[in-house]
Design goal:
Blueprint (H helix, E strand, L loop, with lengths): L1 H38 L21 H15 L48 H4 L12 E3 L13 H6 L3 E9 L5 E10 L5 H8 L7 E3 L2 E3 L1 E9 L4
Parallel strand pairs: 1-6
Antiparallel strand pairs: 2-3, 2-6, 4-5
Length: 230
Amino acid sequence: MSQLLLPRNKLFSSKVPLIFVAACAVNALIFYLILQMVSHEHKPLNKIDSINFLDFIHFREKEKTEERKMEEKKQEPPKEEEKLPPPDLPQPEIKKPVKTQTELPRPDINIPLSINGLPYIGDFLKSATPKPVAPPTPVVATNLVPTLKTKPSYPPRALRSGVEGIVTVEFTIAVDGSVKDPKIIKSDPPKIFDRSVLKAIKKWKFNPETVDGKTVERRARQDIHFRLQK
Protein backbone atom coordinates (compact mmCIF):
# COMPACT_ATOMS: atom_id res chain seq x y z
CA MET A 1 0.00 0.00 0.00
CA SER A 2 2.82 2.41 0.74
CA GLN A 3 4.38 1.78 -2.60
CA LEU A 4 1.13 2.73 -4.46
CA LEU A 5 0.67 6.10 -2.70
CA LEU A 6 4.14 7.44 -3.43
CA PRO A 7 3.80 7.86 -7.21
CA ARG A 8 0.37 9.67 -6.83
CA ASN A 9 1.85 12.27 -4.52
CA LYS A 10 4.60 12.94 -6.98
CA LEU A 11 2.07 13.52 -9.77
CA PHE A 12 0.05 16.02 -7.67
CA SER A 13 3.14 17.95 -6.68
CA SER A 14 4.23 18.23 -10.32
CA LYS A 15 0.78 19.72 -11.36
CA VAL A 16 0.58 22.46 -8.67
CA PRO A 17 2.88 24.99 -10.41
CA LEU A 18 0.86 24.69 -13.63
CA ILE A 19 -2.44 25.38 -11.86
CA PHE A 20 -0.96 28.43 -10.12
CA VAL A 21 0.40 29.83 -13.38
CA ALA A 22 -2.97 29.31 -15.13
CA ALA A 23 -4.86 31.03 -12.32
CA CYS A 24 -2.51 33.99 -12.44
CA ALA A 25 -2.97 34.27 -16.18
CA VAL A 26 -6.78 34.24 -15.87
CA ASN A 27 -6.69 36.91 -13.19
CA ALA A 28 -4.39 39.06 -15.27
CA LEU A 29 -6.74 38.79 -18.23
CA ILE A 30 -9.77 39.75 -16.15
CA PHE A 31 -7.94 42.76 -14.69
CA TYR A 32 -6.92 43.88 -18.15
CA LEU A 33 -10.50 43.68 -19.40
CA ILE A 34 -11.74 45.75 -16.44
CA LEU A 35 -9.14 48.44 -17.16
CA GLN A 36 -10.19 48.58 -20.76
CA MET A 37 -13.82 49.00 -19.82
CA VAL A 38 -13.05 51.80 -17.35
CA SER A 39 -10.61 53.70 -19.50
CA HIS A 40 -12.76 53.47 -22.63
CA GLU A 41 -13.81 56.99 -23.76
CA HIS A 42 -17.49 57.35 -24.56
CA LYS A 43 -18.25 59.65 -27.39
CA PRO A 44 -20.73 62.50 -26.50
CA LEU A 45 -24.12 62.26 -28.04
CA ASN A 46 -24.87 64.64 -30.83
CA LYS A 47 -27.19 67.51 -29.91
CA ILE A 48 -30.69 67.09 -31.19
CA ASP A 49 -31.65 69.98 -33.36
CA SER A 50 -34.92 71.66 -32.54
CA ILE A 51 -37.66 70.12 -34.55
CA ASN A 52 -40.80 71.95 -35.43
CA PHE A 53 -43.86 69.78 -35.07
CA LEU A 54 -46.83 70.82 -37.08
CA ASP A 55 -50.23 69.42 -36.25
CA PHE A 56 -52.60 69.41 -39.10
CA ILE A 57 -56.26 69.10 -38.11
CA HIS A 58 -58.70 68.71 -40.88
CA PHE A 59 -62.35 69.66 -40.25
CA ARG A 60 -65.09 68.71 -42.43
CA GLU A 61 -67.01 71.40 -44.21
CA LYS A 62 -70.26 70.05 -42.85
CA GLU A 63 -69.19 70.69 -39.29
CA LYS A 64 -68.23 74.28 -40.17
CA THR A 65 -71.56 75.01 -41.78
CA GLU A 66 -73.44 73.63 -38.79
CA GLU A 67 -71.44 75.80 -36.39
CA ARG A 68 -72.13 78.90 -38.50
CA LYS A 69 -75.83 78.17 -38.46
CA MET A 70 -75.80 77.86 -34.66
CA GLU A 71 -73.98 81.19 -34.29
CA GLU A 72 -76.41 82.92 -36.63
CA LYS A 73 -79.34 81.61 -34.62
CA LYS A 74 -77.80 82.96 -31.43
CA GLN A 75 -77.21 86.39 -32.95
CA GLU A 76 -80.73 86.73 -34.31
CA PRO A 77 -83.01 88.70 -31.89
CA PRO A 78 -85.91 86.71 -30.48
CA LYS A 79 -89.11 87.24 -32.32
CA GLU A 80 -91.90 88.92 -30.42
CA GLU A 81 -94.72 86.65 -29.64
CA GLU A 82 -97.81 87.55 -31.46
CA LYS A 83 -100.41 88.83 -29.07
CA LEU A 84 -103.62 87.03 -29.49
CA PRO A 85 -106.79 89.04 -29.01
CA PRO A 86 -108.65 88.25 -25.79
CA PRO A 87 -111.49 85.82 -26.19
CA ASP A 88 -114.97 87.23 -26.36
CA LEU A 89 -116.58 86.34 -23.06
CA PRO A 90 -120.23 86.95 -22.35
CA GLN A 91 -120.57 89.89 -19.97
CA PRO A 92 -123.13 89.48 -17.18
CA GLU A 93 -125.92 92.01 -17.00
CA ILE A 94 -125.62 94.24 -13.94
CA LYS A 95 -128.80 95.77 -12.70
CA LYS A 96 -128.56 99.38 -11.70
CA PRO A 97 -129.61 100.11 -8.09
CA VAL A 98 -132.97 101.77 -7.77
CA LYS A 99 -133.00 104.89 -5.66
CA THR A 100 -135.42 104.59 -2.79
CA GLN A 101 -136.65 107.75 -1.21
CA THR A 102 -137.20 107.46 2.53
CA GLU A 103 -139.26 110.12 4.19
CA LEU A 104 -138.05 110.83 7.71
CA PRO A 105 -140.19 112.73 10.18
CA ARG A 106 -139.02 116.26 10.72
CA PRO A 107 -138.03 117.10 14.29
CA ASP A 108 -140.21 119.53 16.16
CA ILE A 109 -137.98 122.51 16.97
CA ASN A 110 -140.73 124.73 18.33
CA ILE A 111 -139.24 125.91 21.65
CA PRO A 112 -141.36 128.24 23.75
CA LEU A 113 -139.89 131.69 24.07
CA SER A 114 -139.64 133.71 27.21
CA ILE A 115 -140.90 137.25 27.59
CA ASN A 116 -137.61 138.68 26.38
CA GLY A 117 -137.80 136.64 23.15
CA LEU A 118 -135.06 134.19 24.21
CA PRO A 119 -135.54 130.39 24.31
CA TYR A 120 -137.11 129.18 27.53
CA ILE A 121 -134.77 126.76 29.25
CA GLY A 122 -137.00 126.07 32.22
CA ASP A 123 -136.13 126.21 35.87
CA PHE A 124 -132.54 125.11 35.35
CA LEU A 125 -131.08 128.40 36.48
CA LYS A 126 -133.28 128.47 39.56
CA SER A 127 -132.30 124.96 40.58
CA ALA A 128 -128.60 125.61 40.11
CA THR A 129 -127.75 127.16 43.47
CA PRO A 130 -124.19 128.41 43.90
CA LYS A 131 -121.95 126.36 46.21
CA PRO A 132 -120.96 128.08 49.45
CA VAL A 133 -117.41 129.34 49.31
CA ALA A 134 -115.33 128.48 52.36
CA PRO A 135 -113.84 131.50 54.06
CA PRO A 136 -110.09 131.83 53.66
CA THR A 137 -108.10 130.33 56.47
CA PRO A 138 -106.40 133.01 58.55
CA VAL A 139 -102.62 133.20 58.39
CA VAL A 140 -101.05 131.99 61.65
CA ALA A 141 -97.83 133.68 62.70
CA THR A 142 -95.34 131.43 64.47
CA ASN A 143 -92.82 132.10 67.23
CA LEU A 144 -93.26 135.86 67.45
CA VAL A 145 -91.06 137.83 69.85
CA PRO A 146 -93.25 139.10 72.71
CA THR A 147 -92.80 142.55 74.20
CA LEU A 148 -93.67 141.16 77.62
CA LYS A 149 -92.95 137.57 78.61
CA THR A 150 -93.69 135.67 81.79
CA LYS A 151 -91.76 132.44 82.24
CA PRO A 152 -94.05 129.48 82.99
CA SER A 153 -93.41 127.64 86.25
CA TYR A 154 -91.85 124.18 86.11
CA PRO A 155 -94.33 121.61 87.50
CA PRO A 156 -92.97 120.09 90.74
CA ARG A 157 -93.86 116.54 89.66
CA ALA A 158 -91.88 116.92 86.42
CA LEU A 159 -89.04 118.60 88.27
CA ARG A 160 -88.77 115.70 90.75
CA SER A 161 -88.93 113.11 87.96
CA GLY A 162 -86.42 115.00 85.76
CA VAL A 163 -88.89 115.21 82.84
CA GLU A 164 -88.37 117.72 79.99
CA GLY A 165 -90.88 118.64 77.32
CA ILE A 166 -92.32 121.02 74.73
CA VAL A 167 -95.78 122.56 74.38
CA THR A 168 -97.28 124.24 71.27
CA VAL A 169 -99.98 126.79 72.07
CA GLU A 170 -102.11 128.80 69.64
CA PHE A 171 -103.78 132.08 70.58
CA THR A 172 -105.15 135.40 69.28
CA ILE A 173 -103.28 138.68 69.59
CA ALA A 174 -105.85 141.37 70.37
CA VAL A 175 -105.83 144.96 69.12
CA ASP A 176 -104.13 146.10 72.29
CA GLY A 177 -101.42 143.37 71.99
CA SER A 178 -102.78 141.12 74.75
CA VAL A 179 -103.34 137.34 74.38
CA LYS A 180 -106.79 135.81 74.34
CA ASP A 181 -108.33 132.39 73.61
CA PRO A 182 -105.18 130.29 74.13
CA LYS A 183 -105.43 126.58 73.11
CA ILE A 184 -102.94 123.73 73.47
CA ILE A 185 -102.22 122.27 70.02
CA LYS A 186 -99.53 119.76 70.95
CA SER A 187 -97.70 118.76 74.10
CA ASP A 188 -94.90 116.25 74.70
CA PRO A 189 -95.28 114.62 77.18
CA PRO A 190 -99.02 115.26 77.23
CA LYS A 191 -100.88 117.07 80.03
CA ILE A 192 -97.84 117.69 82.23
CA PHE A 193 -96.91 121.27 81.24
CA ASP A 194 -100.31 122.36 79.80
CA ARG A 195 -101.68 124.18 82.90
CA SER A 196 -98.52 126.20 83.56
CA VAL A 197 -98.31 127.20 79.85
CA LEU A 198 -101.93 128.43 79.69
CA LYS A 199 -101.46 130.39 82.92
CA ALA A 200 -98.26 132.06 81.73
CA ILE A 201 -99.26 132.83 78.08
CA LYS A 202 -102.21 134.95 79.18
CA LYS A 203 -99.75 137.43 80.66
CA TRP A 204 -97.72 137.82 77.46
CA LYS A 205 -98.02 140.84 75.18
CA PHE A 206 -97.11 141.41 71.50
CA ASN A 207 -97.05 144.24 69.03
CA PRO A 208 -100.46 144.36 67.28
CA GLU A 209 -100.67 144.07 63.50
CA THR A 210 -101.69 147.05 61.39
CA VAL A 211 -103.45 146.83 58.00
CA ASP A 212 -104.10 150.05 56.03
CA GLY A 213 -103.22 152.07 59.11
CA LYS A 214 -105.66 150.19 61.34
CA THR A 215 -104.76 147.70 64.09
CA VAL A 216 -106.32 144.27 63.61
CA GLU A 217 -106.31 140.98 65.43
CA ARG A 218 -104.25 138.06 64.22
CA ARG A 219 -103.70 134.42 65.10
CA ALA A 220 -100.30 133.26 66.42
CA ARG A 221 -98.61 130.05 67.51
CA GLN A 222 -95.81 129.64 70.01
CA ASP A 223 -93.55 126.72 71.08
CA ILE A 224 -92.58 126.73 74.76
CA HIS A 225 -89.73 124.45 75.86
CA PHE A 226 -89.21 123.03 79.37
CA ARG A 227 -85.55 122.12 80.05
CA LEU A 228 -83.77 121.28 83.29
CA GLN A 229 -80.62 123.16 84.21
CA LYS A 230 -77.52 120.91 84.11
